[in-house]
Amino acid sequence: METQHKSAALPLALAYAALIVYASLYPFADWRDQGIAPWAYLWAPWPKYWTGFDFAVNVAGYVPFGFLCALAVLRTRRSASVGRAVLRAALAGAAIAFAMETLQSYLPARIPSNVDLGLNAAGTIVGAVLAAALERLGAIAHWSRARSQWFIEDSRGALVLVALWPFALLFPAAVTFGLGQVFERLEAAISEWLLDTPFIDWLPVRQFELEPLVPAVELLCVMLGALVPCLLGYMVARTVVLRAVLLPVILLTGVAASALSAALSYGPEHAWAWFGLPVQVGLAAALFFGVLLLFAPRRLCAALLLMALVAQLSLLNQAPESAYFAQTLATWEQGRFIRFHGLAQWLGWVWPFGVLAYVIFVLSRRSRPQPA
Prior knowledge:
By secondary structure, this protein is an all-alpha fold. 65% of the residues lie in helices and 0% in strands. It has helices at residues 9-25, 52-60, 63-76, 82-103, 114-137, 139-150, 156-168, 183-194, 215-236, 240-266, 277-292, 298-316, 325-332, 341-366. Helix 10 (240-266) packs antiparallel against helix 11. The longest helix has 27 residues, at 240-266. The chain is globular and about 60 Å long.
């Protein structure tokens, strides 16, 4: 029987597969049978129009999937050979690429392509071979040993959430690090769903307009938003030294992701337009409190994380979306961003609630009485 080991590679591979599905089938609208076999693209001639960017994206987009799939096999099945891990990853990548291209035959806005299929499969193989090479060199085993030394045993959920945090920041928010601002959108969506039904009268009518946050509250939201991933890392770090390393790394990663988001949305010249005084003071406050909590027990970090998250979500959802939201949406829906803007936005919406669920689960599990 093969010995199974917990690894963050498997949930990351599943999360990345969800990303591929979203990027491949967006905008999920106007599904129809176009009168051709869904696999007819397999015998189509070479496309007339293609660019180096399209070529690179179709290869690079599947490299992480192949890497994570092969790594998941190698980490969860210690008896699995390197060749078997590469083969399984290649088959998984080819299968999902084939499924996505075939389903695109039912979406008039998307064009299935045998070239894309081949490039996606090639990208998967590249990623799987990279994982196999690192395994041969001992790098994967070294990381596994380092992870067991640096982080507690059940750390993969927290590590996955921390790894997803910078990607959740890629879609601009009204407040820096202000993830989970869903009230206004949710209210509008529910109203639209209930329109022309008797249940529309059940929906409470808001008697006031949402007001933008004042600078002091914005500062508080920035601080809380920056502290949340740091406290998440504190929950699974074994030593104070590692916490001291994680604190600046997480904060700098968040700053870099926010700058990249602004550059993609508004142009490179506006990459630091968001870095105003409230953000600067909020980051400094997050760093200050992060240092104070370096020695805090894990359960206290978890409790403070819950308090910070609930407070930030409450404050954020009393404010309207960014005034530049329409402009941002139009920018991201055009050209090369069309496949990724919606996913980044959804990730920004749900990430805090995923953290909330994870921390509650961890606290409830650890609070159960242990058998004698």
